[in-house]
Amino acid sequence: MSPAHEAHAQLAAEDAPLSMQEHAVVSSPAYLKAHPDLRFRQLGLAAVERDKPEDARRYFRLGAQHADKLSQALMAELLWNGKGGPVDRALGYAWMDLAAERGTEWLVVRREQYWAALDEAERKRAVSEGQKLYAEYGDPVAKPRQEREMRRNMGEMTGSRTGALGSTVMQVRFNGQMVRVVPEIYYAPRLWQPDAYWKWQGQQLAAGNSSSVDVGAPHPLRGD
User: Fold this and answer.
1) Which of 35, 76, 77 is nearest to 217 (CA)?
2) C-alpha dist (Å) from residue 7 to 12, 47, 79, 133
3) CA 126, 83, 146 angle in degrees (round to 5)?
4) How many domains are there within the chain?
5) Are 72 and 150 in contact (CB under 8 A)?
6) CB–CB of 67/142 below 8 Å?
7) In this structure, is the dihedral angle defined by the CA atoms of residues 90, 66, 219 and 53, taken in order, positive or negative?
8) Mind telling me which InterPro entries this protein's record contains (predicted)?
9) For all residues of the chain together, what is the average pLDDT?
10) Which of 2, 27, 48, 95 is buried most, with the most CB atoms less than 10 Å from its CB?
């Protein structure tokens, strides 16, 4: 295969839906340990399902620290609706503005709905709160946190400073059964390499909609 064909095949693979093996990988404890964005999002959603919104706020904040935009949007909803604590619409807007940082269409729409509902005093405070949130949770600081976790854990699992994959076939549990996964799939670029990973996460986020942040009936994005 020519380099051009190889590049095309790689791009096609990155855009394709997750295979069963990849679904098994991203559901595995080892993978989630290395991806706190997804781990804390899942814990937050589970807390919502158990009617534990205080716990959900804590988990979504941790997911937000690792650049998970859905965690940030869910945090906004909890604040806006007063679940797990007092109603705080100004701070809820600030979190939703942060969630829409990458220009994801449905999050931008939700942000504008929030803004339209605020009064002038709330808008002023929302801008102030937003500046603080961006300093702690914006992509320029949150993405590097996530990338450090991925690099560190990948190095531990491969047992090599160079990240050599080796040839060992792994087994991960998925839907109650063990699935055999070759290293090339377990360590696929879109699951581990920052540029490809953020592109994949962007695709998952864009495929969501406003129901994905309904804290009364949470819906994880496909592929998580």
Assistant:
1) 77
2) 9, 42, 44, 38
3) 65
4) 1
5) no
6) yes
7) negative
8) TPR-like_helical_dom_sf (IPR011990)
9) 84
10) 95
| Number of Cβ atoms within 10 Å of the Cβ of 9 | 11
The answer to whether residue 11 sits within a structural domain is: no
- Domain annotation covers residue 8: no
Query: pTM of the predicted model, to two decimals?
Result: 0.82
73: three-class secondary structure by DSSP:
helix
- The helix or strand, by DSSP H or E, that contains position 45, with its residue range, turns out to be helix 36-49
Look at residue 211 in the predicted model and tell me its pLDDT. 60
- With pLDDT > 90 as the criterion, what percentage of the chain qualifies? 63
Residue for token digits 């999002």?
A: 41
Q: For residue 220, tell me if it sits in a domain.
A: no
Rg, Å, the chain Cα set = 19
- Which domain does 30 fall in, by range? 18-149+165-208
Task: For the chain, report the end-to-end CA distance as a whole number of angstroms.
Answer: 32
What per-residue confidence (pLDDT) applies to 8? Answer: 35
Of 207, 197, 199, 177, nearest to 36 by C-alpha is: 197
pLDDT in tens, 151-180: 998 877 654 433 444 556 777 776 777 778
Give strand ranges (E) for 68-197. Answer: 170-174, 177-181
Whether residue 192 has pLDDT greater than 70: yes
167: its two tokens = 């040839």
The beta strand positions in 103-181, using DSSP E, are 170-174, 177-181
